[in-house]
What we know:
By secondary structure, chain A is of the alpha+beta class. Helices cover 29% and strands 16% of the residues of chain A.
Amino acid sequence: MAQRWYSIKEAADRLGVSHDTVSRLVERGELPAIRVSKRIVRIPVPAFEFYASGRTPTQRRVVRRSVEQPRPIAPEERISDLAPV
Amino acid sequence: MRLTDRGLDSHLAGIANLLDRYGVSLDGGALTVEEATAGARTLDIRGFLPDGRRPSRAVLEIRETWLPAGPGVFERAEYVYELLDGERDFRRAFHLHDRDWFERHFLVVVHEHCERPIGTERCAHYEGTPVRDAFAGVFVLVDAWTTDSPECSSLRCLRT
């Protein structure tokens, strides 16, 4: 399986910047990361690649669609199918 | 949290923005809010985390139902935040739906799912903690995806 996350050090090495710089990017939310504990931060590889590419999020239109009934939110879990407890 | 219709549009756009920033490829172009006749609003957004395969087998889905909570405002009533990680044959999900049924049977309103391999589970519902909003939902799903060796054994089954 390919690597799924980078540590701050790995991200810093790949960007060619310091550990502190990456920590600041994470703190400011510019580089999305998962804080596992006070000391451990995982930077998802896709998030890192998106940031490193210099891309920006796509601006998307929001459209409205009228429906008779709202769709069941968890159709895979129909209550009628759940075993009685 | 209560949102107006315009706020719901911004909410949905904000989720898409966050997913983009996490490197999730989204399905389709425009984002859709479904408006039911009785007033409910449903948001559904689905994307793929790059797992090195084409097409990706890591599907992430955010679904929410918002109900009218006063004139022109809506409140989130149900949610499904779901990860299917095909590469590792792992499912992780955070749910709030059918509130009455769950309260009656388990005295809780939220539950979780965890399957590895997908289709196998120790119990139908696991105890869960409420997920604050869709942004936290994205966070918990990406967290599950980045976990090195996901497993379900630390979760507690819901019991009456």
